[in-house]
Specification:
The chain is mainly β. It has a five-stranded mixed beta sheet, with no helix packed on it. Strand 10 and strand 11 form a beta hairpin.
């Protein structure tokens, strides 16, 4: 009787079954590349290491990309964006879906307290170092919104003498954070006195001071501290009685 050979092809793995007159055996071949399970990795694309004012959205969105082992974009996967600290602000959305380019995008609005913060992006339901990316952002003080006196606004004085307490102002943003590096202009507006430093810069605590020497006259002497285009001026007064 002639021998018969039957061929069975399966998608993965591939099995060839041969029947030869009462005896049989299976030959298992390696998986083809197309049938093997694909691995994926998440990488940062843009948005890392940014600095912005407190309470404001960072200019660049946080962007990640998910590719398989053959560098093909993975579409429809969920990526979470989680803040490392509640003071870091807010991300929107907290979970994004990869688009046709395999990218997931979220916007980061900084919190109201200056500092360095982090957002962690991760593939949902998948573990591994290549499934996570970290984004770093720094919240800086905002524009000065309030000028506040840190020393008495009214004090006694003597003619042609420095005031007993040099005037000090503090600049803070709309959330009350000190704003350093701001130029404050000091101007004598009454009493014909003078200041040794007409322009001073706020320090790390948002404070600036002036050396104010009164003029040679009895009466009310005034000095203002102002910020161009900023908060209203602060006026200091010295009263000379003799």
């Amino acid at each position: 009787m002639p021998h018969t050979i039957s061929l069975i092809v399966r998608s993965a793995p591939v099995v060839l079954a041969f029947g030869v007159l009462g005896c049989g055996s299976d030959l298992v071949l390696p998986e083809s590349p197309s049938s093997a399970a694909r691995t994926v990795a998440l990488t940062k694309v843009d948005g890392d290491v940014q600095t912005g004012p407190v309470g404001e959205k960072l200019l660049k969105p946080l962007r990640v990309q998910v590719l398989d082992s053959e560098q093909h974009p993975m579409i429809g996967l969920s990526v979470s964006f989680a803040l490392s600290d509640p003071a870091a602000g807010a991300v929107d959305p907290t979970t994004a879906t990869t688009n046709s380019a395999g990218e997931a995008i979220a916007n980061w609005t900084l919190g109201t307290v200056p500092g360095s913060y982090m957002v962690v992006a991760a593939l949902v339901g998948v573990e591994g170092q290549d499934k996570v990316a970290e984004f770093h952002g720094t919240a800086a003080p905002g524009a000065p919104a309030v000028s506040a006196a840190q020393t008495p606004l009214d004090q006694p004085g003597r003619r042609e003498q420095p005031v007993r307490t040099p005037p000090v102002v503090q600049m803070v943003d709309r959330f009350g954070n000190p704003v350093p590096g701001i130029a404050v202009t000091w101007q004598v507006v009454a009493g014909e006195g003078q200041v040794a430093n007409p322009i001073s810069t706020t320090d790390a605590e948002g404070k600036a001071s002036a050396e104010w020497t009164l003029g040679n006259r009895i009466g009310v002497h005034k000095l203002t501290a102002s910020l161009e285009g900023g908060a209203l001026p602060v006026t200091f007064t010295a009263r000379v009685l003799f």
